[in-house]
């Protein structure tokens, strides 16, 4: 332990730099891989959607796990400001991922609902309780 109360010395600093690089380089790289898979799939008719989805899930995990791990390393190394900064960043990233997931689920719920389109000339009962159609 050093005199200023910090533990770990250079290893904590190297760990924080490494996790920050993984966070700032890994997340965009995985996201761009997902976009490339999606574009490739749009060009080719028989593509595996699971591959693009896997890259998106990996990007979301790295986006949240890297700053959370850095907050843990900073906390164990008694770097208070870094622990707070990485912890707050992890919380913001988690909220962002959850918001994107919620928007994605809302879109799927709308698509899953069956839609009934009656054929031309078909009479549909509306409010009022009777099934008489105007003109017939």
From TrEMBL:
UniProt keyword terms in alphabetical order: Membrane, Transmembrane, Transmembrane helix
Residue ranges of domain DUF6234 in the record: 13-133
Keyword Transmembrane helix: yes
InterPro entries reported in the protein's UniProt record: DUF6234 (IPR046201)
Disordered, as annotated region: 114-136
Transmembrane segments: 12-32, 52-76, 83-104
Protein name stated in the entry: DUF6234 domain-containing protein
Originating organism: Bailinhaonella thermotolerans
């Amino acid at each position: 332990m050093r005199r200023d109360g910090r533990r770990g010395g250079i290893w904590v600093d190297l760990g924080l730099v490494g996790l920050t690089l993984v966070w700032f380089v890994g997340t965009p790289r995985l996201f761009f891989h997902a976009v490339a898979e999606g574009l490739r799939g749009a060009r080719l008719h028989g593509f595996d959607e699971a591959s693009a989805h896997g890259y998106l899930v990996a990007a979301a995990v790295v986006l949240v796990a890297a700053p959370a791990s850095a907050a843990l390393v900073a906390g164990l190394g008694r770097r208070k400001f870094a622990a707070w900064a990485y912890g707050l960043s992890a919380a913001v990233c988690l909220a962002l991922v959850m918001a994107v997931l919620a928007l994605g689920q809302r879109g799927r719920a709308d698509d899953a609902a069956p839609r009934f389109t009656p054929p031309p000339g078909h009479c549909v009962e509306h409010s009022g309780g009777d099934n008489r159609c105007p003109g017939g």
